[in-house]
Design brief:
Blueprint (H helix, E strand, L loop, with lengths): L1 E2 L4 H12 L4 H8 L3 H8 L7 H11 L3 H5 L2 E2 L2
Antiparallel strand pairs: 1-2
């Protein structure tokens, strides 16, 4: 069984950015989007495309499961 917190990923990507001392425009540039779109991702206004989640995971050196806060209970 696994557990998923749908809205948690928005907070997680914001926390990762802040913890690593990046501005939104830096992450947005890496993703090839404008800062407004990235801000809407962080605030949960826009859904984050899977391609973007993959790039964020690679950028921060984490798994997509970590970004989505999926926990697998063995």
């Amino acid at each position: 069984m696994y557990y998923y917190c749908g809205d948690c990923m928005y907070k997680r990507i914001k926390d990762l950015r802040i913890d690593n001392e990046y501005k939104q425009n830096v992450i947005a540039s890496y993703l090839g989007i404008d800062q407004t779109t990235y801000s809407r991702y962080e605030n949960g206004i826009l859904d984050i495309p899977s391609k973007t989640l993959k790039k964020l995971a690679e950028f921060y050196g984490v798994t997509i499961d970590y970004l989505l806060e999926i926990e697998i209970d063995n």
